[in-house]
Automatic annotation (TrEMBL):
Stated name of the protein: Gfd2/YDR514C-like C-terminal domain-containing protein
GO molecular function (one): nucleic acid binding
Superkingdom of the source species: Eukaryota
Pfam name, any one: DEDDh_C
Coiled-coil intervals: none
InterPro entries listed in its UniProt record: Gfd2/YDR514C-like (IPR040151), Gfd2/YDR514C-like_C (IPR048519), RNaseH-like_sf (IPR012337), RNaseH_sf (IPR036397)
Record domain Gfd2/YDR514C-like C-terminal: where: 3-200
GO cellular component terms, A-Z: nucleus
């Protein structure tokens, strides 16, 4: 009965401690009709259709642009509207996310307390998970101390890559016959990573 929570971070290329974007994708398996699951592409598409997405940008780093090593596209979130946050609110936002993953749209509104709900089995998904957990620590969020996660799924490892010989998200999506647009936007990368996990499964 898990909730899959995928996170991707973008950091400023000249100061990696500055997290300029935070992308989130969530899939609640309770939204899926698990009695009618097969390996058809139509079923995969129905799972993808149930995913929810968010893209957060710290307002303090709004002017920072990645353009030397990778071409960033922070303004090009494909799956919704970008939400501006304060960098100091990053940790609280992430704690709310892992405590209430099914209430993604309300999490950045700190004036609203998400409804009390039973604890869920949360699976953390990432592409190159060790990199993203390290970036989350720059926001003051420690995955082992600040969240209850039953399992971590790294799509890079699932795709046959390793830390030394990684499989890029772009190559993975090509192999899955998905045209990934505006990569290196954290919201898009989180969305495509969670989609990749479902499609590989």
């Amino acid at each position: 009965d898990p909730v899959l929570v995928c996170i991707d971070c973008e950091a400023f290329e000249h100061a990696q401690q500055k997290i300029t974007e935070l992308g989130v994708a969530v899939l609640d398996t309770r939204d899926i009709d698990l009695h009618n699951v097969d390996a058809s592409s139509s079923t995969s598409n129905s799972w993808v259709a149930k995913m929810k997405y968010a893209h957060y940008r710290p307002i303090e780093y709004a002017n920072l642009r990645n353009k030397n090593f990778i071409k960033g596209c922070a303004e090009s979130f494909n799956f919704g509207t970008t939400t501006w946050i304060r960098v100091n609110d990053g940790k609280q936002l992430l704690k709310r996310l892992f405590a209430h993953p099914t209430h993604l749209p309300q999490l950045a509104d700190f004036a609203v307390t998400p409804p009390t709900s039973e604890p869920r089995n949360v699976v953390f998904v990432a592409h190159g998970a060790s990199n993203d957990t390290a970036y989350l620590k720059q926001l003051g969020f420690d995955m082992t101390a600040d969240a209850e996660v039953i399992r971590t799924v790294d799509t890079q490892l699932l795709a046959g890559g390793s830390k030394k010989h990684g499989v890029s998200l772009h190559r993975l999506m090509l192999a899955l016959e998905v045209e990934a647009v505006n990569l290196h936007n954290a919201g898009n990368d989180a969305a495509y990573t969670l989609q990749a996990m479902v499609l590989m499964a």
